[in-house]
Amino acid sequence: MQGDLISLRPEGLYCEAGDFYIDPWRPVDRAVITHAHADHARVGHRHYLASEPAREVMRCRLGAISLQTLRWGEPMTLGDTRVSLHPAGHILGSAQVRVERRGEVWVVSGDYKLQADPTCAPFEPVRCDTFITESTFGLPVYRWQTDAQCLAEIAGWWADNAAGGRASVLLCYALGKAQRVLAGLAQAQALLGPMVAHGSVTAVNAAYRASGVAIPDIFTATDWRRNAADTPPLVLAPPSAAGSPWLSRFGDASIAFASGWMRVRGARRRRALDRGFVLSDHADWPGLVQAIEASGAQRVIVTHGFEAAIVRYLSERGVQAHALRTEFGGEAGAESDTPVSADTHPVAEHLSESPH
Fold it and tell me: How far is CA 163 from CA 69, 158, 166, 233, 350, in A?
């Protein structure tokens, strides 16, 4: 990528013409942030630029930072470039970064999904010459059902557990996934019983509400024990809470995980889960292909995930494509700053599958 509009440096993706980085993993002077997950929005930068809808979740995650925001599509001049942010559909405020210089246009996708989500703006295709795309679920095996189907499965599991006197613990990422589930199950709450949120989920819920997103009121664990402890709840907690003393207060419980990784046989067994629900905030294989085609890009740079399958698929169709390894963690990195490589993903054995 040497000499390109956007290149790779030790700090991360860098635009020399504008003198800024996109989602850098080491401290820099100016960072353009696609979204607030920990593997993309890190502490230590001097100045941050993000979308206006991301303002509250950025503050929630990073505290008192020097933050400037842009409305969707609002252009900003940085050095010799024009930069604008466009909805990525991943979580609240998630953005694609469009960079233009002298008629050449690059787009950095960040993380994205094409499925509808009531808690964030939908993905917006952005035409460009070069598209830098994620590939977290870049294998043909990854194909999502509709949200309605998945939420109905979660509600049925919750109802069965409640009828048997068991709590239902749904492990899901505290930023984005939990709010999507809560919004989708808001009506079911009145029929099935109380919902309880881990403290990390509660904090993000407040940021979403402050951003104008409708999130139903739910109990904290303390409030549940005080007011509704005789009714088995649905408990939303981050994966890091699995096996923690915090969960023991709910007594007998069924443990499930909502993640795209649940699409592959064996992933649930390896985590010792009772249930797995296939719900991802990333694009599946058809979504990745659709987004890349909609960009119109004749050059595609594929990052974090199963890059090889996407690169081969595009190359066979006459698109100039190559992989770029970064320190972004995809879905597995949403809860921590620990980089995740394709070699350690739970479906690494599928790397040799044909993309057709």
Answer: 47, 9, 8, 11, 39
